[in-house]
Amino acid sequence: MINSCKNKMRIRFKEFNGVAIWKWIANDDSCGICRMPFDASCSECRYPGNDCPVLHGECSHCYHEHCIKKWINSQQTNKLCPMCRQEWKSVP
Amino acid sequence: MNSNFSEQPRATVLSSNPQTTLGQAQRRLMRDLRDLNLNKVEGICASPVDAHNIYLWNAIITGPPDSIFEDGTFQLTMKFNENYPNQPPEIRFVTKMLHPNIYTDGSLCLDILQNRWSASLDVSSVLISIRSLLIDPNPNSPANSAAAILYRDNRREYERQVRELIEESWREDLDTDNDDNSDDEEMKNKTRATTTTTTTNTTREQENAE
Questions:
Q1: What was the ipTM of the complex prediction?
Q2: Which SMART domains match (chain B) (predicted)?
Q3: ∠A85-A87-A92 over CA atoms, to 5°?
């Protein structure tokens, strides 16, 4: 029906606002160290996003990069995952 | 204030309050407090001593049921520092205890509070561990050797003395309660743990109203 109409409706875009959402891929909702959601920043950062990334460990646990680095640096001997106490190795 | 604060997205809170510079330890402690209030755990209760210092907490553990500690309520203090949760809190029993892993000054010999501390632990998990330590002592690393020997060699006498201490703590509580009635100022100075300062104030206001 519409196709057969002679006067087709025309739409002209004046403006277009794209909206996107993003989410960190992590196996949990929140960081086990600071308890803030991954989609928010760690407790030291102001804004979430690339400046406050999420780090995955080989043991499958995830933390804010800032949180896990601070924990690892505060440990004198063993650098262990706070959750499973396996040696912490981050997945690149 | 706490609950509203933590439910808002952080960016909003910070942009509306650019002066707020809470450290990671303070933020984490506020989350711990919120978690404690949201997920009540049987037998434990804790809160900061006052609204101006989130680093010092009072806690109360009730004795696990069906144990010799059953009828006791045990008061502890928890001292955090700005490196929390990367460093464990200093925890000490205020109530006098007889336990193989509790020093006579009230401090504890518990691996998770020393070399097995982990940044994923929080106030509630620590208190749950301490509560289970009460009924499950580790006689191999005694902090109070007299208690450890008694526990190992003369369990009946150990249990008798524990019960005696618990009964003694009731008497002290009664004494403090009497003092409180006679002098309100004194109550404020007491280090007795209250669930929250606000609740005590409200109850007091209600009493005054009546």
A1: 0.77
A2: UBCc (SM00212)
A3: 120
The beta-carbon neighbor of B119 closest among A44, A48, A82 is: A82
Taking chain A, what is the end-to-end CA distance rounded to the nearest angstrom? 57
Question: What pTM does this model have?
Answer: 0.75
Closest-approach residue (CA) in chain A for B27: A43
Do residue B120 and residue A33 have CB atoms under 8 angstroms apart?
Answer: yes
- In angstroms, the CA B184 to CA B180 distance is 6
Task: Summarize pLDDT for A45-83 with one digit per residue, the tens.
Answer: 888 888 899 999 999 999 999 999 999 999 888 899 999
Q: For B42-209, which CATH superfamily applies? A: Ubiquitin Conjugating Enzyme (3.10.110.10)
Q: Which CATH superfamily is domain A26-92 in?
A: Zinc/RING finger domain, C3HC4 (zinc finger) (3.30.40.10)
Chain B residues near residue A43 by CB distance under 8 angstroms? 22-24, 27-28
**Residue-level pLDDT at B180:** 54
* Mean pLDDT split into 10-residue runs, chain B, 210 residues: 44 40 87 94 94 94 94 96 95 96 95 93 96 91 92 95 93 70 49 44 48
Ordered by start, the domain boundaries in chain A are 26-92
Q: At B27, is the secondary structure helix, strand, or coil?
A: helix
C-alpha span between B138 and B81 (Å, rounded)? 28
User: pLDDT of B158-197, one tens digit each?
Assistant: 999 999 999 998 887 777 766 655 554 444 444 444 444 4
Strand B53-62 with B73-79, pairing: antiparallel
